[in-house]
């Protein structure tokens, strides 16, 4: 039998007592636990931050995160993208496919950036080596992408969309122990009593917020730090 640990809710955010202070009010946590594939977690000791977008499957009881990244700059060779490093560490992974988040999450894009290397030596940024970059500038929000192809031959149609349409946010920071073989994650779908502090969360766009509303998630976001 395989051994290991199921590691939930590690108190990474020591400044805030283990739960990141991005929720001013009391969030509504979905009933029951939801499991996340360990392969979808950031590499230890990096951390999935509170406020990370997720898709929660109520029947399968699974969580799929949607990681987002804000662009700081693109180098002159159009092969390196510098992104803001969130305080929980490096979230991007080699092999991850990224697209620019557009106004319509259901609209496919032709520009997909596959991460081939990551320079995580700086405290405040990560530098991603990708293929040729087009249409990405400072302030662009990138998100994980899924590519699907339907049909065959001349009838084949390829779409590149955000990995999942989010229907919640993670409640607190989560880190995968090196020995863990599973991880449970709580997600929230409502926090309207007081604002959610957007600047303490992974980056959002108007279209991502709309997706949350369309999935009956209710948050009042604030830009206050």
What's this, in brief?
The chain is built from 1 helix and 17 strands.
Write up this protein.
The termini are far apart. It is globular, with a radius of gyration of 17 Å. The protein is mainly beta. The chain has one helix at residues 206-214, and strands at residues 5-6, 28-29, 34-36, 53-57, 62-66, 68-74, 80-84, 97-100, 113-114, 117-119, 125-129, 141-150, 157-162, 168-170, 180-185, 187-197, 218-222.
Radius of gyration: 17 Å
Strand content bin: 35-45%
Average pLDDT score? 89
**What is the number of beta strands?**
17
- How many alpha or pi helices? 1
Low-confidence stretches: 9-18
Which H/E pattern describes the elements? EEEEEEEEEEEEEEEEHE
Question: Helix/strand/pairing class, anyone?
Answer: mainly beta
Helix amount: under 10%
Tertiary shape: globular
| N-end to C-end Cα span | 47 Å
Largest sheet: 9 strands, mixed
List keywords for this structure.
225 residues, mainly beta, nine-stranded mixed sheet, eight-stranded antiparallel sheet, 17 strands
Secondary-structure topology with pairs:
Blueprint: E1 5-6, E2 28-29, E3 34-36, E4 53-57, E5 62-66, E6 68-74, E7 80-84, E8 97-100, E9 113-114, E10 117-119, E11 125-129, E12 141-150, E13 157-162, E14 168-170, E15 180-185, E16 187-197, H1 206-214, E17 218-222
Parallel strand pairs: 1-15, 3-5, 16-17
Antiparallel strand pairs: 2-16, 3-15, 4-5, 4-14, 6-7, 6-12, 7-11, 8-9, 8-12, 10-11, 12-13, 14-16
């Amino acid at each position: 039998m395989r051994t290991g640990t199921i590691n939930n809710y590690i108190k990474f955010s020591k400044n805030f007592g283990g739960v990141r202070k991005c929720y001013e009010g009391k969030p509504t946590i979905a009933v029951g636990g939801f499991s996340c594939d360990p392969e979808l977690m950031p590499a230890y000791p990096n951390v999935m931050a509170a406020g990370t977008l997720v898709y929660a499957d109520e029947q399968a009881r699974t969580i799929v995160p949607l990681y987002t990244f804000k662009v700081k700059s693109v180098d002159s060779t159009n092969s390196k993208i510098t992104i803001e490093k969130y305080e929980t560490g490096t979230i991007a992974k080699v092999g991850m496919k990224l697209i620019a988040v557009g106004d319509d999450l259901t609209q496919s894009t032709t520009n997909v950036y596959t991460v081939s290397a990551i320079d995580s030596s700086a405290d405040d940024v990560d530098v991603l080596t990708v293929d040729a970059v087009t249409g990405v500038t400072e302030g662009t929000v990138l998100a994980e992408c899924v590519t699907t192809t339907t049909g065959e031959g001349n009838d084949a149609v390829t779409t590149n969309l955000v990995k999942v349409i989010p229907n919640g946010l993670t409640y607190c920071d989560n880190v995968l122990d090196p020995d863990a073989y599973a991880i449970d994650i709580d997600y929230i779908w409502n926090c309207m009593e007081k604002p959610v502090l957007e600047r303490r969360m992974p980056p959002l766009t108007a279209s991502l917020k709309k997706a949350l509303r369309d999935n009956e998630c209710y948050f009042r976001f604030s830009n206050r730090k």
